[in-house]
């Protein structure tokens, strides 16, 4: 049977080689190849013309050498199939070029194509999101995003985690912030007034409570999916739909949770640097040009992040540091109990900790959600065993905590938070039947992408962004 079907199980490529594989291969000059892609640019000259062809698998693209007649057929943006012969590039970087024999135009493109060969602003590119990935920045971003996801998953696979798919539709507001999107079926009219689930239902803001369900059985789990927040914050850090990697682990303490968080982020950075060198060099140049004087180059910054341990300090330590800055004028108070604002976070990461990520732990209980584990030995005010990971130029990248595993304490906290404990009976039961000490965290994937690429706005690092007032496509 196998021999009959073997031809369908071939490991050979299923179409012509990608531009990336062609450029990276050691195919000899003289080899005949077929290349598919889009024309990025055409340089027409009297005797000999050049076109850059890219199928979106790499930054550089393939240089095609054409005669004037062939060049006349090509326009920027057109989709083409080129047949030709590989030749050695005469340029400094010894690569390959394509001496074109024949051109098949698969899709014409006229002069109104907006992605012409010049630098567009990111704001403008967002308005043509359907074409954004045809440019170098948009394409490189998607490939790095893919690699980052693989890096994260690789870390968890290597550390014996099981990936769980948590639901998108839920009846809970995990973070208790009331920033939920309510789900109403299209068939519901005011007249019949029926909800589909006979109870208010929302798009999830976090998969954490469900992840806890499974950490209480499989010890180490993670979930990776889209979450939704009806936040009206029009900032460069907030989306209405974003992706979150949430890990949940039994039998650990807070310091071990920080180790896992740091390990998963460093592993992901390493994976991206190893698998996307061309893209990362591209982003490095982009960030370097813009911020040359202010910031170290992206690759230097990431290298430093990998080489040194993340700083760890308590909320109390952070407040002390802020208060010991007589010369520094902060807009918001720095008294113990007040919440850390962006200006404080910026100071802690960029100045106090010299551009290294900082874990701030053990915040006052009243600043944090109901599920966080109360510390037993709080001095001035009750605190919880939690952390925020703050990163230079980005702010909060990760939020996490030990979870309150004592049934009675948890029930009390829920009541104080004004929650309907009946609705969360299952969550309390996890504490009744063999409750395990456990903790977890959520990485905002788009903010991780900012860290990896040097982009400054989360709208640039998600394929199709959604933010308040914007749901095109
Ligand atoms: O701090 P948050 O709200 O934590 C939780 O949701 C926990 N339940 C996670 C857990 O412990 N399993 O969000 C986690 C991270 C933030 O640190 C931030 O990086 C990102 O999610 N984030 C956003 N990213 C983009 N747009 C928004 N509106 C975001 N809100 C939070």
TrEMBL record:
A GO cellular-component term linked to this record: mitochondrion
Keyword line: Aminoacyl-tRNA synthetase, ATP-binding, Ligase, Nucleotide-binding, Protein biosynthesis
Record keyword Acyltransferase present: no
Pfam families on file: tRNA-synt_2, tRNA_anti-codon
SUPFAM superfamilies for the chain: Class II aaRS and biotin synthetases (SSF55681), Nucleic acid-binding proteins (SSF50249)
Domain Aminoacyl-transfer RNA synthetases class-II family profile: start-end pairs: 142-463
Single GO MF annotation: asparagine-tRNA ligase activity
This enzyme's EC code(s): 6.1.1.22
Keyword Nucleotide-binding tagged: yes
GO biological process, one term: asparaginyl-tRNA aminoacylation
HAMAP family: Asn_tRNA_synth
NCBIfam families, sorted: asnS, PRK03932.1
Family the entry assigns: Belongs to the class-II aminoacyl-tRNA synthetase family.
Name the record gives this protein: Asparagine--tRNA ligase, mitochondrial
Organism: Phascolomyces articulosus
